[in-house]
Amino acid sequence: MSVKIEKDDQPRTISRREFLSGAGIVAASAIGISSTSKLTKGVVQQEWPWSYEKLDVEQVRKLGHLGYYEGACSYGAFHAIVSALGEKVGDPYANFPTLMMKYGEGGVVGWGSLCGGLNGACAAIGLIAGEDYKPLVNELIAWYSATPLPTAISNDLAVNHEFLVSEYKSDQALEQSVSESSLCHVSVTNWCKASGFASGSAERSERCGRLTGDVAAYAVELLNANADGAFEAVLPLSEDTQACRTCHSKGKEFDLGQWTRGKEECSACHEPHD
Ligand code: HEC
Ligand code: HEC
After folding, report:
1. How far is the CA of 273 from the centre of ligand 1 (A)?
2. Ligand 1 pocket list (CB less than 6 A)
C-alpha cells in the first residue's frame, strides 16, 4: 500500500512501511494532519473527484455491453466509463480495479435490489462528478425508471452486429419495458412478463447487457453536460409520488407520516388511502 501526500505542492508517494515507521508521521504532521484520528487508521483522504474529459456516448454504450459479457451489469457499466477515461486521461483511471464492482450483479449478488447497471454507473459518477453527484445520480435513476429499455439504439446495434462482442446471446430486437423502479427485481420481472422470456434465459441476459450499455451511455450524456456546465434536471417524480411524499418522506414529524423515506413510484406497491 502507498499513501499519496502533498507538501508545498509537491506530490510525493510514501510506502506503507515508511508511513508506519514514522517518516510518514513527520511528513504528515508537517502538513497538519492530526496524528490521532487519521494516522492511527493509516488512511489519508485521496484526491477527489478525479478529472474528467468528455467521452463518446456511443463508444461507452458498446463498452458497457461488452463489459456485461465480461463481468455482468454493475462491473460492465462502471468499467465502460472508467476504462474509456483510462484510454483518454490515463492514470489513475487506467489502474483502477474495476472488478471491485462485480458485487452489484443482479441487484447485488442476485438480491434484486438496486439495478447493477445503475449501481456501476452511479459509482462512476461518484468518482468523477464530485459534489455534483447527487443531481446527476438522481436524474439517471429517474431516466432509468421512465425509459423503455433496452433502447432502440441498442436493439439496432445488436441486430446489425455492431456491438463489440463476436458471439451474441441473442441478436434479435428485444421487447422494451419501462421499469418504473430502480430495483433489479421489478425491472427484470416487468421485462420477463412483457417479453415472455424467463429470467434465466439468454434473451434476458442479453437484455441486461444492452441495458448496461444504455445506462453507461446515459450517465456519460449527463457527465458531458455537467462538464459543459449545461446539466439540467428535467425528470420530476410522478405527481402521485410527489403527493404521497408531502407526508411520507424523510423528516422529523412521525405523526405526519414520516416513518419512511424514498423516491420510488409509490403506486407500484401501495394503494392510495384517504
Ligand atoms: C396528508 C398526509 C398523507 C398523504 C398525502 C399520504 N399519506 Fe399515507 N398515511 C398518512 C398517515 C398519517 C398514515 C397513518 C394513519 C393511517 O393509517 O391513516 C398513513 C398511512 C399509510 C400507509 C400504511 C397504512 C395503510 O393505509 O396501508 C401506507 C402504505 C401509506 N400511508 C401510503 C401512502 C401512499 C402510497 C400515498 C400516496 C398515494 C400516501 N400514503 C399519501 C399520511 C398521508
Ligand atoms: C417496491 C415496493 C415499494 C415501493 C415502490 C414503495 N413501498 Fe412503501 N413499503 C413497501 C414495503 C414492502 C413496506 C413494508 C411492509 C408494509 O408495511 O407494507 C413499505 C412500507 C411503507 C409504509 C409504512 C406502512 C405501515 O404499515 O406503516 C409507508 C407509509 C410507505 N411504505 C409509503 C411509501 C411511499 C410514500 C412510497 C413512494 C414514495 C413507497 N412507500 C414506495 C414497499 C414499497
Report:
1. 6
2. 240, 243-244, 246-248, 257, 266, 270, 272-273
Supply the DSSP symbol for 74: H
Ligand 1 nearest atom to the CA of residue 267, by list position: 35
Contact status, residue 217 vs residue 120, Cβ threshold 8 Å: no
Atom of ligand 1 nearest to the CA of 272: 38
The count of other CB atoms within 10 Å of the CB of residue 131 is: 8
Segment (H or E) for 204:
helix 202-227
Report the sign of the C-alpha dihedral through residues 65, 154, 151, 219, in that order. Answer: positive
Instruction: Compute the distance from residue 264 Cα to the ligand 1 centre, in Å.
Output: 15
- Please tell me whether residue 15 adopts helix, strand or coil conformation: strand
Q: Which ligand is nearest to the CA of 256?
A: 1
C-alpha of residue 31 to centroid of ligand 2, in Å: 49
pLDDT in tens, 155-205: 999 999 999 999 999 999 999 999 999 999 999 999 999 999 999 999 999
Give the separation between CA 231 and CA 134, rounded to whole angstroms: 12
- The parts of the chain modelled with pLDDT lower than 50 are 1-38
Q: What is the pLDDT of residue 181?
A: 97
Determine the pLDDT at residue 40: 54
CA-nearest residue, atom 12 of ligand 2: 269
| Ligand 2 atom index nearest CA of 186 | 1
Distance (Å, whole) CA 128 – CA 81? 10
pTM (2 decimals)?
0.88
Nearest to 121 by CA among 214, 183, 16: 214
Cα gap 44→172, rounded to integer Å: 50
Cell of 232: 439540467
H/E run at residue 162? none
